[in-house]
Design brief:
Helices cover 3% and strands 63% of the residues. It is mainly β. The chain has a 21-stranded antiparallel β-sheet. The chain has a two-stranded antiparallel ribbon with strand order 19-20. It has a two-stranded antiparallel sheet with strand order 23-24. The protein starts with a strand and ends with a strand.
Length: 513
């Protein structure tokens, strides 16, 4: 539903809600999702603009877990826990809202501000047997946490303070606190899939305050230099409230900071062709999820931030042959945050000394005739470990040049669509995904696959009403494939099979006010 006002200071709005329910392709893979969104926009009398966005999502999903290669080949629909005694599942509830406000002070100066806040709750039941949980250091087989987060970004922009320049200065603040608990996934009667005694209880906080400046300079006709500098500083603290015999105080804190420069040079060769070159320093700090577990089940404060040098060279063209983009890139990363193994649904992370990613991205689209459009894209990424990762077990040594698991080396997509504003519409698309290695030593891989999809629909429009119907078939040729892999799974259950041929149909009604 959407509507708008013809006069300033009166809001326009968009409201939408959707419901998704599926039994899933595999056993114990049912899922339900409720999503609601609302947006209000005001164009005020003083020339400023205000946007307010609210979003709520509710997700409940059963988890059939990964399969070994033998299990996948035997029966891709099976659940790993054949008796389903653990009832592995996940529940997510999140509400967030945000405001943006922009105001031109005069022809040269403008201020922009953004503020947001949100709340997220997650409960996850895992397939961890009772024996490992007998260890007093174990955090249990149920993850249960709630997070509150908020932040703001305030920036000022000035034009022509120097000839042909545009300056921006700003500061970003973000804050998050998390109440994280862990529980046994069984009760006093040894029934699994239930929340039992508490095994973890902590309060985690994170905040950052990042000042930044940017400048854009048209130093020659058709030449532009864009530069930026940001001081990023991130602060973590964990306060442990679960202290018992055999499980001491795991409280701790750590700070990360870096100065991050960036620069991009653009040459507008003509109205149809631009070329550019860019460099940026990257800084990726660990997330709460990545820090949640270590070898001793406490917070992983040994995890370092990843630091990268990123280079890109590309072109953008728009002419009678269509819209075309091409880019080559290279990223050298130190202390990359990579998987240290996944066991019983619990993921841990570590730092790889050096990794290297380099590749190519291409995209093209064109209106062929009337409402007939075509599009195509291709990406190549060579993502490898750039140094050895030693291990006391020779069979687990990661050799320089091994491919980073879970990353497809080649991906391609092509689609053709007939899409008028009203009336009959149809389309077809083909997607190719290269094989995915399942672990750091590249011991196995999910094979490559090609999927074909087709869709038809009809759109009616009458005054303020719009009715859209659609029907879609995915995996048209019923390919047997693995949609994703669980990287470095400790039990060898790497493979998550995806659906065969499947269809969907729907109806949407829109009323403009």
């Amino acid at each position: 539903m959407q509507g708008g006002a013809d006069q300033a200071s009166e809001p326009s709005y968009v409201i939408s809600s959707s419901y998704f329910d599926t039994d899933g392709y595999r056993e114990h893979s049912a899922a339900r999702k409720v999503l609601s969104n609302a947006k209000l926009t005001w164009n005020l009398d003083d020339g400023s603009k205000l946007n307010w966005i609210v979003n709520h999502v509710d997700i409940n999903a059963d988890d059939p877990q990964g399969l070994t290669r033998a299990q996948w080949k035997e029966n891709p629909k099976q659940v790993n826990d054949a008796a389903n005694i653990y009832d592995v599942r996940k529940e997510i509830n999140q509400t967030q809202t945000g405001l943006t406000w922009s105001k031109p002070i005069n022809d040269r100066y403008e201020i922009n501000t953004m503020a947001y806040l949100g709340h997220r709750e997650v409960t996850q039941y895992q397939s961890i047997p009772q024996a490992p949980q007998n260890n007093p250091r174990h955090a249990g087989g149920v993850i249960d946490f709630s997070r509150d987060y908020y932040g703001t970004d305030l920036r000022w922009t000035g034009k022509d303070l120097l000839p042909n320049t545009r300056f921006t200065a700003g500061v970003a603040f973000d804050y998050m606190d998390e109440d994280r608990q862990g529980y046994e996934n069984f009760n006093a009667n040894n029934q699994f899939g239930l929340k039992g005694d508490i095994r973890r209880d902590e309060k985690n906080t994170l905040w950052n305050l990042d000042p930044y400046v940017q400048a854009s300079w048209d130093f020659l006709p058709n030449w532009t230099l864009d530069t930026g500098l940001r001081y990023s500083n991130v602060h973590y603290e964990s306060k442990d409230h679960y202290i018992v015999v055999g499980n001491g105080d795991d409280s701790g804190k750590t700070d990360y900071d870096r100065i991050l420069p960036s620069a991009a040079l653009t040459w507008k060769i003509n109205d149809q062709l631009n070329v550019y070159a860019s460099y940026a320093k990257g800084f990726e700090t660990p997330t709460f999820t990545e820090m949640a577990y270590s070898k001793n089940d406490g917070m992983n404060f040994d995890l370092k931030p990843a630091n990268s040098d990123n280079y890109e060279l590309g072109l953008k063209s728009q002419n009678q042959l269509g819209n075309f983009t091409a880019a080559i890139f290279k990223s050298n990363t130190h202390d990359d945050i990579v998987s240290a193994g996944t066991e019983n649904g619990r993921a841990t992370y570590r730092n790889a000394d050096k990794t290297l990613r380099k590749g190519l991205e291409l995209s093209w689209n064109k209106n062929l005739w009337r409402d007939l459009t075509a599009q195509a894209s291709y990406s190549f990424i060579d993502a490898t470990f750039d140094s050895d990762i030693l291990n006391t077990d020779p069979a687990k040594v990661v050799v320089k040049g091994n491919y980073i698991p879970g990353v497809a080396k080649n991906q391609a997509f092509v689609a053709l669509a007939w899409q008028p504003e009203t009336g009959f519409n149809a389309g077809m698309g083909v997607r190719y995904i290269d094989k995915l290695y399942v672990d750091d030593i590249n011991s196995d891989a999910a094979p490559s696959y090609t999927l074909t999809s087709a869709n038809v629909g009809y759109v009616w429009k009458n005054a303020d009403w719009k009715v859209r119907t659609f029907a879609r078939v995915d995996n048209l040729f019923d390919e047997d494939y693995v949609g994703s892999v669980i990287v470095n799974d400790g039990n060898g259950r790497f493979f998550e099979p995806a659906d065969g041929v499947n269809w969907s149909a729907g109806l949407s009604v829109t009323k403009a006010f």
